[in-house]
Design a protein that fits this description.
By secondary structure, the protein is α/β, with parallel strands linked by helices. It has 11 helices and 19 strands. The chain has a 7-stranded mixed β-sheet with strand order 14-13-9-12-11-10-19. The longest helix is centred in the C-terminal third of the chain and has 20 residues. About 45% of the residues are buried.
Length: about 375
């Protein structure tokens, strides 16, 4: 297998909040799922800043060492970002992972699709409605295979909620309330691209996608979004948070979705992401605390809430170090489909481009509401 990873930042290699998901998952999948046949599998990472190459190479070496993977099995190399496009066009890797700022997603995805390379993209698809529409058109023309990393579709708690919706034992869902916050130092000190991406597009997209995961036929009917301005706004020009009231029409009737999304967490927060859901049915209530998963680590610096279900380093029963969780599953299922070489199944369960485009439309209307400082009422579904 020859795999290209465009990007080498937090979600690929890691940051102060935890290990990067992409490279570790790709390497583990190669070791677990693909026969070696006496030849090494190749993984190529692209990077932007030449000054960071030595540090990134050391991180890669450490990851391979931690997983006990010899070069004879998986060879990982670093190349400059300018070389990534050439690799796509001339070497046609078996799969391409795009893990760069949102404004670059479409450019690389188009090159991948035109080269016939299946592509996996960190969420959101683009954060730009015209670009998302263009990608949808190119996908139809080329048959391109695009997977967006809406990994919450693989979270057992969300799949349980979907099952409850299908069973309808508590009647129809009336409201889906979201509180989702991350530390304020991420946009100020960690991300260099914050000025180009608002917080609702960056992380709120996950829970917009969840609406379509629960109700694939949902139609957006109105959006009323209010910005919250504080320290992040002062430093970057982006809102600290967004209060968005979204309304949808589903096959079961109207659904109201108030979402409070922001970079509000103090630096002493016990977890990178604080996220809770309250789901109100006609005859019941479901609360999902997706931060406090029942695992706490106490140390001299404080208490950490650990979510082992997302991405966690463990050891299997034979003592082999490995990574597990729904973050890994998003990579695994994508590569499983790539390996088969068959057409991807038509399924609204999977985070394919056709599913992700629905969320892109909602994000665009939230952006319009924030810009116009007004509620937007829609007469028809324009997401298709």
């Amino acid at each position: 297998m020859n795999i290209l990873i465009i990007g080498s930042g937090s979600y690929v290699l890691g940051d102060q909040y935890g290990p990067g998901v992409v490279l570790r998952s790709v390497v583990q999948w190669l070791v677990d799922e693909v026969s070696n046949n006496g030849t090494a599998h190749h993984v190529t990472l692209s990077f932007d800043n030449p000054k960071t190459k030595e540090k990134k190479q050391a991180e890669i070496t450490s990851i391979l060492s931690d997983l006990g993977v010899p070069d004879a099995l998986v060879n990982v190399t670093l190349v400059s970002s300018s070389e990534a496009r050439t690799i796509l066009e001339k070497q046609t890797p078996d799969a391409c992972f795009i893990a760069v700022p949102d404004q670059l997603h479409a450019e690389y995805a188009i090159h991948a699709m035109q080269a016939g390379v299946p592509v996996w993209i960190v969420k959101p698809l683009t954060g730009n409605w015209p670009e998302a529409q263009k990608l949808a058109e190119i996908t139809k023309e080329t048959g391109g295979k695009v997977w967006v990393d809406y990994h919450k579709r693989f979270d057992t708690s969300n799949r349980l909620l979907k099952h409850q919706v299908k069973q309808a034992e508590m009647g129809r869902m009336l409201a889906y309330s979201v509180d989702y916050h991350q530390p304020r130092d991420l946009p100020i000190d960690v991300f260099s691209w914050t000025a180009d991406v608002d917080v609702f597009t960056y992380i709120g997209c996950h829970y917009v996608d969840q609406i379509f995961f629960l109700y694939p036929e949902a139609v957006l009917t109105s959006v009323d979004a209010t910005p919250l301005c504080g320290k992040v706004f002062q430093e970057t020009g982006q809102f600290d948070g967004v209060l968005a009231n979204l309304a949808f029409q589903t096959s079961n009737g109207p659904l109201h979705c108030p979402m409070n999304v922001g970079w509000f967490n103090p630096l002493g927060s016990p977890a990178k992401s604080l996220q809770t859901l309250k789901v109100q049915f006609e005859a019941g209530l479901v609360e999902l605390d997706q931060t406090r998963r029942g695992v706490q680590a106490w140390g001299d610096k404080g208490v950490a809430e650990v979510n082992p279900y997302f991405f966690c380093e463990t050891s299997d029963i034979m003592g082999h170090r490995r990574f597990t969780g729904y973050g890994y599953d998003s990579v695994k299922y994508f590569l499983d489909l790539v390996q088969t070489g068959a057409d991807w199944p038509e399924s609204n369960e999977l985070p394919t481009l056709s599913e992700a485009v629905k969320t892109e439309y909602v994000l665009s209307v939230v952006q319009q509401s924030l810009k116009s400082s007004s509620k937007i009422v829609l007469k028809a579904n324009r997401s298709s």
